[in-house]
From TrEMBL:
The lineage of its organism: Bacteria, Bacillati, Bacillota, Bacilli, Bacillales. It comes from Paenibacillus spiritus. GO terms for molecular function: zinc ion binding. Residues 131-188 are annotated as: Disordered. PROSITE patterns: ZF_DKSA_2 (PS51128). This is Conjugal transfer protein TraR. Keywords: Metal-binding, Zinc, Zinc-finger. Pfam families: zf-dskA_traR (PF01258). The keyword Nucleotidyltransferase does not apply.
């Protein structure tokens, strides 16, 4: 016997089906784009060579591809979790934590209808420890590097810009200046 009412189960099933349809539609609409993500950078960008491009352009393209791949990977995982949740509904085990056997509160299922765990028993997702290879050869800057850089460069940062410009007055017309002076007087 489920702790969820038929109305609650119906509402959650509707949410799951709607989200699965959204994800399916996403992958159908972006099928050509997703196919290109697996191709080489040259093929996906349509460039004959990356040699004539600025390194920042290539870096931007690489970042965009990595981001798109990560998003797609996450959406694929979400869709498989939705399918598993729908399967648990059919089996009658939906809403029961797979780790502890406890009932998952309706409020949690309403927020994440494909979850198979209570908050306390949700598995921790491992964050990759992979770091860029460049970090192995980078050295920290010497202590004191950059301190007082703007102070001695003859420039100022945004925080000091108004104070420096204020010494010379502002561009208010005489009428605006008089109005400001009246307001300042009234504030006393």
């Amino acid at each position: 016997m489920s702790h969820l009412s038929d109305t609650q189960l119906s509402q959650l099933k509707k949410q799951l089906l709607e989200r699965r349809d959204e994800l399916t539609q996403h992958f159908e609409q972006n099928d050509e784009e997703n196919t290109l993500l697996g191709d080489s950078l040259r093929v996906s960008t349509g460039e004959l060579s990356a040699a004539d491009n600025h390194p920042a352009d290539v870096g931007t393209e690489t970042f965009e591809r990595s981001r798109d791949l990560a998003i797609n990977e996450n959406l694929i995982r979400e869709r498989s979790e939705i399918d598993a949740a729908l399967e648990r509904m059919d089996e009658g085990t939906y809403g029961i934590c797979q780790a502890s056997g406890e009932e998952i509160p309706f409020e949690r299922l309403e927020a994440i209808p494909w979850t198979a765990y209570t908050v306390e028993h949700t598995p921790v997702r491992e964050v990759s420890d992979d770091r860029p290879i460049e970090e192995q050869v980078m050295t920290r800057p010497p202590s004191g590097a950059g301190e007082g850089r703007q102070e001695h460069s003859g420039r100022f940062d945004d925080a000091q810009a108004w104070e420096a410009a204020e010494e010379y007055g502002n561009s208010d017309s005489p009428a605006m200046a008089a109005k400001r002076d009246v307001k300042d007087y009234n504030d006393l």
